Amino acid sequence: MKKRFLVAAVAAGALFAVAFGAYAGIAKVSRVSATPLPSSSCGPLQYKGSGSPQFIIASDLPLQGSSRSQTVELSKAEAFILGQQGWKAGKYTVGYQSCDDSTAQAGKWDPAKCSANANNYARNTSVIGVLGTFNSGCAEIEIPTANRASLGMVSPANTYVGITHSATGVTSAGEPGKYYPTGKRNYIRVVAADDFQGAADALLAQSMNEKKVYILNDKEAYGAGIAGTYRNALKHLGGIQIVGDEAWDPKASSYADLATKIKNSGAQSVFLGGLECENGGKLIKDLRAGLGNIVIVAPDGFSSFKDTIAHAGSASENMFISIAGEPFKFLGKGGKAFATAFGKSLGLPATKVNPYSNYGATAMVTMLKAIEGSNGTRASVTGNLFKSKFSDSPIGGFVINKNGDTNNAPISIYKVGGGTANFYKLITPPAKLVTG
Amino acid sequence: MNLPQIQLRHQLKPACWRLLGRAGLSESRWRSWSVTRRRAVIAATVFVVVAIVLGPIYGFSLAAFLTWLVFVALYVPRWERVPRVGRWIPPLGVLLIAIAFPFYSFKMFTIPVLGQFPDTHTGVVMLIYTMMALGLNVVVGYAGLLDLGYVAFFAMGAYTTAWFASQQFAGQTATGAPLRSFSLGSIDILPGTGGFHISIWLLLLLAGVLTSIIGIVIGLPTLRLRGDYLAIVTLGFGEILPQVFRNGDNLFGTGFNLTNGPQGIVPVDPLGFGHTLDHWFGLPANYLTVAPNTFGPTNLSAGDAAFFWTALVLVLIVIFVSWRVRDSKLGRAWIAIREDETAAAAMGVPLMRTKTWSYAMGAFFGGVAGAYFAAFTGGANPDSFFFNISVFILCMVILGGMGNIWGVIFGACFLAYLDQAGLANTGAWLGQHLGIKIEVPKYEFGIYGVILLVVMLFRPEGLIPSARRRREFKEGVHDEPIVEAHV
Amino acid sequence: MATEVSAPNLALLRRRGIPSPAAIFGTLLVSAVLAWLAYNAVLTPSLFAKQFLIGLTNGSVYGLVALGYTLVYGILELINFAHGDVFMLGAMISATFAVQIFGLGANEAWYVLWPTVLLTLLIAMIFCGVINTTVERIAYRPLRGAPRLAPLITAIAMSFILQNVALAWKGPNYIALPYILPQSSVFSIGPYHYQWADLIVLFITVPVLLLLTWFVQKTRQGKAMRATAQDRDAAAMMGINVNRTISVTFLIAGMLAGAAGLIYALYFTSVRFDQGFQLGLIAFTAAVLGGIGNLTGAVLGAVLIGMIQAFNNGLTWHAPGSDWTQSIVFAILILILVFRPEGLLGERTPEGQ
Description:
The structure holds 3 protein chains of 3 kinds.
Chain A (H helix, E strand, L loop, with lengths): L1 H26 L27 E7 L6 H17 L3 E2 L2 E9 L1 E2 L4 E2 L1 H13 L3 E6 L3 H13 L3 E4 L31 E3 L4 H14 L4 E6 L3 H17 L3 E7 L8 H10 L3 E5 L6 H12 L3 E4 L6 H8 L7 E5 L8 H14 L8 H18 L5 H8 L3 E2 L7 E2 L11 E7 L2 E8 L3 H5 L1
Parallel strand pairs in A: 1-3, 1-6, 6-7, 7-8, 9-10, 9-11, 11-12, 12-13
Antiparallel strand pairs in A: 2-3, 4-5, 13-16, 14-15, 16-17
Chain B lengths: L3 H19 L4 H6 L2 H24 L3 H14 L13 H16 L5 E2 L3 E2 L3 H23 L8 H14 L16 E4 L10 E4 L1 H23 L4 H21 L26 H8 L20 H25 L2 H11 L1 H6 L4 H27 L9 H14 L4 H30 L9 H15 L8 H9 L12
Parallel strand pairs in B: 3-4
Antiparallel strand pairs in B: 1-2
Chain C lengths: L5 H10 L5 H23 L1 H32 L6 H19 L8 H31 L8 H22 L4 E2 L8 E5 L2 E4 H23 L1 H11 L1 H6 L4 H27 L1 E2 L3 H16 L4 H20 L10 H15 L14
Antiparallel strand pairs in C: 1-4, 2-3
Helix pairs in contact in C: 2-3, 3-7, 3-10, 3-11, 3-12, 4-5, 4-6, 4-10, 4-11, 5-10, 7-8, 8-10, 11-12, 11-13
């Protein structure tokens, strides 16, 4: 009896050895073309050039939840540009993968997902650059990981100030240095930081002769940040009193109590620093119901006009929504050409192309240019990103400075009327209001 | 007790045997075979199903075949009969497989429907959840106290790491230079960086200790409550603590920034052994910058592998402690309380102290897991800690089998894999093969709800139950409350 | 039962006439809150009055949900976590019928509005009653006699399942409704208006509470419910069909949730798949605050919670603000459970009503 077990044991041991030997054998096989990123968070590798691509540009966006309509179009715009350039950057062939940093349950970006994605990009040597992220909170997690892998990132939408430069009262200690553990920058953005939008909204308040404003935020990374820049800009402008500054609870069933409190404060205008998906529609409704025709100003967190108007109904009439970038008629040659061609590919008129798509396209253009002039290493691509300078692009001309910020910073103000958002005016805040 | 699982088994089992009997295998004949033979037949059946039935769909893979061989080697022989070393062989085999995981995970086969075999990164997350599930198992499985706010301990652990291994408390002078700077065994910090920087290794311990103190503080006033009241109180704490973390950037209007509010605290310092140990023992200096070829093949992700093995060591410690404690006097006291609180008290088991210990210990493991999670994901963010995570971990414990270490490990690994990749892949698979466009991950918690419901109704002792738990569910227990709500 | 539990010691202290630390702490806390309220009332009287009314209205909606918790807890000693989600489904079915099917909009004439609202109310009540009874049949009845934690776990499971049903049905976004209830002002306090919609909510809650009390106290079925709550085995021996009685309880609780859902949809005009759980926890807190198992207590607790929320969010002098609302509600829950598990009206047990 015992002997049989001994035999079994030896046999099992042998099988074990064979098994691991075989794995080691497999492990030695190496690959030549780009390895796609895992399908659990990234879409299929898009490439229509000849052969297989040498490099991958990964896009990192929240493809689920309320920003979905914007981000899906943004991702398409990025792929569209790559397709226009023949899936190539100079002599290098480049594929594209669209990765998702959100979870459906949360309905927005998820910290664990961002971290996992960043690790995926960093360790996949085929990934030459990342276009992302959409949410600043996610960028804070991904930048350090990418930084250690000297992987360049171009964001089409991050607006939190502290990622690239510091500002009193808005950024916290150690920002932005703490995001770059190697001490060498690897992140640029083609969209203007929040301090531009906050300043533009403050100028809007000034232009309407407001004396008392109330600031609300949704206690999310983005919302608290933009409310802070608005507050800063108001203080710099002077002459406008902030009579209240607090958070709204996205889970509350009613904001009637908050509206009453605002009415008691005598504010002429309310600023909603936050996202529409954080119960913004209901908030607008309750503010209108309790405060009548008070001026409501919202940043680009409410820029999904369709949702904002659908959720708030007639209460959204006459509210102002600011958004970075320019409407179609103000776009330069590059912008108009892109919007027309891209709109055509989607079956949309050029004027209906979401402004973020222009930013996505610009991010791709910037990345491709950096790859084109590189020697094929990540470090050289990253270095080139900081030399980016365009006389025209889908968002017009711009230069990236040493912090990775753009100098292209027009802010469009839209006003809701008759059930649609109409362009109201363009504000380009002066630099001295922003940097203070 | 007339539970439906008994009825179901009585109906299903004979039906299966009738079917097998037609094929010439009656139940009595099966029973007459030796254990080894029966296991060999099962192993052969698995092979037939995998290689012949699923092979044509998924392609025959060498990796699948080798996996099957390992399964045969561990499962078929009756190792326990081998004198002395026998009963250690299967666990050691499993351990070996786990240690080798980073070397083969990227070369493994595709699991039917669930998609790609988990990669090393997923492996780390699975191990972190295993740690937490084992911690919750001490509270729910051993002591029988339902904790619906376990996520609070996880958050506390993560924030401990974030506080003491980041620039959070650096402060700023007028020129923007840091006010405070303290460093203890941290690695790869640029000179002139402010804030506390304590080695993550120490913080893992510190997080455990701090969290178990929180556990005791929460436990002392609440543990005298009856089971369901305790559940709702823990749920309350699980909701309050994340809100404190979210609002802690300006605590009570004093301007004191404890938690950096909704921004979360990112990034935290890297985990690693530093350059001295790297030089002398080859231990990776910094997990985030491990060279790709450190452990041999370059397509195993070296950084994730380092995190994986570290997590494995932590999980082994947790397993060892849970296992030893379960068989100790304290562990037996927990089980006594779980089965009959009144009788346990009458036999001289100090209720409060015993329950508090289970709380403290569960909290300790949760804290360590949270601290490691923060080190792994590079930060602590209030969005990561919400009620659903508590239920997710509870689901792991219940699916695997309350009170059974192996069951809980299985439940944790399986559900964590589903969460990380399995559900998304299932959605993709459904779309490709059946043309059903459904975002499966969107219904993640609905699926967990169904799992919880089905397990509680049909197999309340879990998939891999402990013998004792199974008896309790069969025979029922007397857990009348000690303190009545209605006086 | 004298073991190492602190409760008997507290009782001992109380007998000797020495107030327990818990009692001192509780008294201090309550007086501090009252002083804060009084100062605010003097400082901004009309704001205070308006917030009081908002709290009263929100509280009565919570009350309808809290009644469902308290009924079920009274009879089964089970926290029916799924109750909040049944309520949320009620709000969704009301939204679907009132707006999409019956096409109600703002400013409907009264002879269109009221019959339609009543019809929707009926549909929502039946729908939720059926769902709640089904939940009981599937998830709780098979587990009678199982360890206490088993039905609690299935209750959480059902809550998640119902949430996901709603998610699949209506998607992850808020469903917005128009203001169907009349928004015109009934009376004004300073610059603030009290609207007809607010009043209507009260007009629905109060009769429902009276009807329910009458049902539980006077009818045969109500007596059967009370008997079952008191001692299930003895009730069975006296010829009461326990399973049926429990089903009826769940049916009534579900119908209350349906009514609350309709009011919620019409009054708050915004609902999402995960709001039920949230509101359920608030309502449960209210039920505990009032004394769980006690019908009047549930409504009283709910109104108090509604007011605490409104005062916290809307008062100006040293109010913690809406950042902390959630924490405050849960802190109340914990404090009550720890120091006074019988609640405010706890002397009267469900049996003794």
